[in-house]
Design goal:
Number of helices of chain A: 12
Structural class of chain A: alpha+beta
Helix content of chain A: 40-55%
Distance between the termini of chain A: 82 Å
Helix content of chain B: over 70%
Distance between the termini of chain B: 36 Å
Strand order of the largest sheet of chain A: 2-3-1-4
Shape of chain A: elongated
Oligomer: heterodimer
Shape of chain B: globular
Order of helices and strands of chain B: HHHHHHHHHHHHHHHH
Largest sheet of chain B: none
Radius of gyration of chain B: 21 Å
Number of domains of chain A: 2
Number of strands of chain A: 4
Structural class of chain B: mainly alpha
Order of helices and strands of chain A: EHEHHHHEHEHHHHHH
């Protein structure tokens, strides 16, 4: 018993002798069986009982991870974080995602099969493999076939293995010592370097992303602005009439810009609010109200704002009895047409936005005129 | 089962199918008759041409592993000859199904621009030329190979190898003509450059699936002694690779049209994605790509007869669905499938099987005169 022994190796004259010896040696000695041959021999994997390579499963799983991460990246960047409409297609266009998913799947799978096979499974680079210093190696690369019993951690019973190998027809026996400890550039070291590079890349990407998002020190992509294009409200030599902006094509109506035909407040009662009273509608209404209406009508809609004191103006109290009696259409009409000193807000608010404001004004009216019955009977203590 | 009984059942099915076809013409109308004719004749034709391509592929690359199996695709390629008369008869479908034969349709400038290619005399010339070229290829590859069984003359291999590259060009052109003339010109306003490649991918896959099925069937009956799992593995590998190729080409065609959104391209897909056709596309994606792809990933699946047998069956069905999805929407009546389709199927499939049974009486089950047969039998992965 020698714990410094790596393997005991027997040399055979031809492949058939080697194949015959394998079942005879198997089971009679402790240690892992390994064969070294000058050319591949069919069926030797089964005879030696080598396990199936796990590389297929690894590649499959990594390919799947590649596909899913590509999809997640695309969904996040072009669907959620910065929704970018391209060529009028929906933001979540699976068709456009497929090529990237395909490429990333192939990339992950190739890296896994190449690097996984070399580094993880074969533990390369392995400069000090004991077989490299074996006297039998020059013979094996020429015309001899070797069967080796290799140590799996436990010490090998050299005498017994030698006897068994001789018995099965081995011509020469060689005892090979354990390898020297691996040098600095071992497989483990390379794996750590690769992992380090990967973690640094992830970290750098993450830091750059959030750094640019939270502390925008530079204006991103200004050069996109410096290009020959038509600017609104500017003159331009592109068209004959010298205007950069165009009139709508005769006889057409832009989406969301249906012409408004109602002339007076009295006629506007026929308009009905087309929007449902959902949370998102109220939220949009509050936003629009805060931006355009609250400056004069006050944040509560009661006509009290900073402007009142500064200019002595008297904006309407939107939560008063009078306005509460208005139909929805009349409030809408005032937004479109203006009233007294108030100008039209048709240019600032789209049709839908005006209706969200109407909903929100209704909510303000209700809130500013709360009733006793609004208080829950069972008040929690 | 008794040999004569099988033949009688097939003959009965063919006769019953013929009766159903006559009834289709009388009851359901000539449009339904010819659309079924085109569909089923192309289904059998593509299986035959795919098999002929496999034979030529072996000669052009000098493959050895497939020599013991070569008689199978050689016999299957006889289907392309059987469909020669069917192609000539299908010329009667031109005025019924193909809009470009109608003087009214030629007022459309797009269709008028294609009239130089799409006119009845030139169409007929192309059909005759294609059928003639296929007969020529069949005589050189298949008849020569069967003659070699007795003569044992290696000169055949030299002739076949010289002709194979020429045939590759012939095949590329004729399969594109089949795709453009018989399928694409059903909607003559449509443009797709890659359509020929798409039909080629389906054709090759159909030939492979039919060849795999026949090889597995013959192996189970001991007709191919010496052919083992290593040969079957290669067929499985081909199926695996070309199911991905088919999906790649099919998706490329769709992606570019979807992106560009040009009216002259997208209308074809719009017709084929609405209603029942949309469900059929999903079925096609699963049966023609996802299922074979996932099932054939593991190494064992490519050489295990049972799994390969049902996957090849699924792919033959999927190839039919593919053609059905391309051809039937031109009727504009939804996904019709009823007794006329079944009658045509019974006639075409039964007569094809009878034709194959007849072909099996000619020559040995393996190319016994081929000098490379032994090398092919000894093939190991």
């Amino acid at each position: 018993m020698n714990s410094r022994t790596f393997s005991v190796l027997g040399l055979f004259d031809n492949a058939q002798l080697l194949m015959n010896a394998i079942p005879a040696v198997k089971g009679r000695v402790t240690g892992r069986l390994e064969a070294y041959t000058p050319y591949p021999i069919h069926g030797i994997e089964e005879a030696l009982g080598l396990r199936k390579s796990p590389i297929g499963g690894m590649v499959f799983i990594m390919g799947l991870i590649g596909a899913i991460s590509a999809l997640a990246l695309e969904l996040w960047t072009s669907g959620i974080d910065y929704p970018l409409v391209t060529a009028g297609k929906p933001v979540f266009s699976w068709e456009a995602f497929i090529p990237i998913m395909f490429e990333v799947t192939v990339l992950f799978a190739c890296f896994t099969s190449g690097l996984g096979m070399l580094l993880l499974l074969n533990r390369l680079p392995f400069y000090r493999h004991p077989m490299l210093r074996s006297r039998s190696m020059p013979l094996i690369t020429r015309d001899k076939f070797a069967l080796a019993v290799e140590s799996e951690g436990q010490p090998l019973d050299v005498d017994r293995i030698t006897a068994v190998l001789r018995e099965t027809g081995a011509q020469t026996i060689e005892v090979i010592d354990q390898p020297a400890p691996p040098g600095p550039v071992s497989a483990g070291f390379l794996l750590w370097v690769a992992a380090g590079i990967m973690i640094s890349c992830l970290l750098a990407g993450y830091l750059t992303y959030w750094g640019m998002k939270l502390f925008p020190v530079s204006v991103p992509m200004v050069h996109m602005l410096d290009q020959p294009k038509l600017d609104p409200e500017r003159e331009d030599s592109f068209f004959k009439d010298g205007f950069g902006m165009r009139m709508p094509v005769a006889g057409t109506v832009a989406r969301g810009q249906t012409p408004y035909t109602i002339k007076s407040e009295q006629d506007s009662a026929v308009l009905a609010n087309p929007l449902p009273r959902t949370e998102s509608v109220f939220r949009k209404g509050r936003q629009a109200f805060a931006t355009y209406c609250s400056v004069c009508h006050g944040i509560l809609g009661n006509g009290v704002s900073t402007l009142t004191a500064a200019y002595g103006a008297k904006p309407a109290n939107l939560v008063s009895e009078t306005v509460r009696g208005y139909p929805d259409g009349r409030i809408y009409h005032v937004i479109v047409a203006g009233k007294n000193a108030m100008p039209s807000y048709a240019a600032e608010l789209t049709e839908d936005e005006r209706w969200t404001v109407v909903h929100y004004v209704r909510a303000l009216q209700r809130a500013m005129n709360a009733r006793d019955t609004d208080i829950p009977k069972e008040t929690p203590r | 089962m008794n040999e004569n009984r099988t033949r009688n059942i097939l003959a009965a099915a063919a006769v019953a199918g013929l009766a159903g076809m006559a009834a289709t013409a009388l009851i359901a109308g000539w449009e339904r008759f010819w659309v079924n004719w085109i569909l089923w004749f192309l289904y059998i034709l593509t299986i035959g041409l795919g098999s002929l391509f496999i034979v030529a592929l072996e000669h052009v690359v000098g493959a050895r592993w497939s020599v013991p199996l070569r008689r199978v695709p050689e016999r299957l390629s006889g289907l392309a000859l059987l469909m020669g008369p069917a192609a000539l008869l299908a010329l009667f479908a031109l005025p019924v199904l193909y809009p470009w034969t109608n003087a009214e349709a030629l007022k459309d400038p797009v269709i008028a621009g294609k009239a130089i290619w799409l006119n009845v005399p030139f169409f007929a010339v192309r059909v005759v030329a294609c059928v003639g070229l296929w007969i020529l290829a069949y005589r050189i590859f298949v008849s020569g190979s069967i003659r070699q069984d007795g003569e044992k003359n290696p000169g055949f291999n030299v002739r076949a190898r010289r002709f194979a590259p020429v045939f590759m060009v012939i095949f590329g052109i004729t399969i594109t003509v089949v795709a453009f003339d018989w399928i694409s010109s059903l909607e003559p306003a449509w443009y797709s450059d890659v359509f020929g490649v798409y039909v080629f991918a389906g054709t090759f896959l159909a030939g492979l699936a039919a060849t795999s099925l026949a090889v597995l069937y013959l192996m189970a009956r001991g007709k191919l002694p010496g052919v083992g799992p290593d040969h079957v593995y290669n067929l499985g590998g081909f199926l695996f690779a070309f199911t991905v190729f088919w999906s790649y080409i099919g998706f490329s065609q769709y992606l570019l049209m979807w992106y560009a959104n040009m009216p002259e391209e997208v209308f074809w897909y719009k017709e084929r994605l609405e209603g029942a056709w949309g469900a059929l596309v999903l079925a096609l994606a699963v049966l023609h790509f996802l299922l074979p792809f996932l099932v054939l990933i593991p190494r064992d699946a490519k050489s295990e007869p049972k799994r390969l047998f049902w996957i090849a069956t699924v792919m033959l069905i999927a190839h039919w669905l593919d053609l059905y999805w391309m051809i039937f929407p031109v009727l504009g009546k939804g996904a019709l499938f009823s007794w006329p389709e079944l009658s045509f199927g019974a006639f075409f499939v039964a007569s094809s099987l009878l034709w194959i049974r007849h072909a099996m009486t000619r020559g040995a089950d393996m190319p016994v005169g081929d000098p490379f047969l032994r090398e092919g039998l000894e093939f190991r992965l």
